[in-house]
Amino acid sequence: MMKKKLIRILKIALIIYLLVGMILYFFQEKLLFHPTILTKDYAFNFKDSFTEQTIRYDSSTTYCLVKFHTQDAAKGVVLYFHGNRGNIERYERFVKNFTKHGYEVWMMDYPGFGKSTGLLNEQMLYEESVQVYKLAKVFYKPENIVIYGKSLGTGIAAQLASRRDCKRLILETPYYDIISAAERYAWMYPVSWMMKYNIPTYQYLQKVTAPITIFHGTSDEVISYSSASKLKTVLKPGDEFITLTGGNHRNLNSFPLMQQKLDSLLSL
User: Fold this and answer.
1) H or E stretch including 213?
2) Rounded to 5 degrees, what angle do the CA atoms 242, 172, 260 make?
3) Dist. CA 240–CA 211, nearest whole Å
4) Using CA atoms, how far apart are residues 36 and 88, in angstroms rounded to an integer?
């Protein structure tokens, strides 16, 4: 009797395990990306001076790019790759970190975010970053281009910096790779087989010739500090991994240490 009951429990547990695994596989984009979609005619109302530009990639793919301007002639540009939530509106509050030092800030939405359209996949994320870099290079030399990534955008920024020259690569709350980040939540599944996204930040950083600065908090509830700290092993001499004690995934900009370090880097 007990044996039959145990077998029944195990069967139910297996069915639940398989069902959850199927959900994780087939709906991983829904779990990984949380965009806020905007209509084509939506009017941005940013406090900072800006210009909006639409980049057409193909018949179904367009990228919405917002260029935030400086008061005076810009000395360079920051290509800002944002996180997995919302759209450009969510990240506009960080613009002054850079414009106050004379840098324009170019933010682009990924396909399916904001006004951007098209198929969202890992290769398209990389392709978008290259398109924006090419446009930036029309106006700025590589030594005046800073590549910045936040959360999801860190892997995209790292991949771009591994392929294109820039003044500096700055990463805020990066991951070792997407697979290791996902394993934190789905440790009971063969995540490396299931994930459609890899974004191996650690591999890209090994190919970046520009100086690298990384910020990560010890209390990050989304991307663990222990996972991010493994990136230290692939940094070259002169690169920096700055630990913000008690910092979580969303509050690093409130730390004086981060603000002071950004001010120091961007004033150069």
Assistant:
1) strand 212-217
2) 55
3) 8
4) 9
Instruction: Name the pTM for this structure.
Output: 0.92
Instruction: Give the pLDDT mean for 186-191.
Output: 62
How far is residue 82's CA from residue 153's CA, in Å, rounded to a whole number?
5
CA-based torsion, 92, 158, 194, 128: positive or negative: positive
Going by C-beta distance under 8 Å and a sequence separation of 6 or more, which residues neighbour residue 135? 55, 65
Does residue 254 have a pLDDT over 90? yes
240 in Cβ contact with 212 (< 8 Å) = yes
Which stretches within 140-210 are classed as H helix? 152-163, 178-183, 191-194, 201-205
Q: What is the pLDDT of residue 15?
A: 66
Task: Assess contact for 54 and 63: CB atoms under 8 A.
Answer: yes
pLDDT digits (tens, 9 = 90+) for 131-180: 999 999 999 999 999 999 999 999 999 999 999 999 999 999 999 998 88
Domain 33-266 has CATH 3.40.50.1820: yes
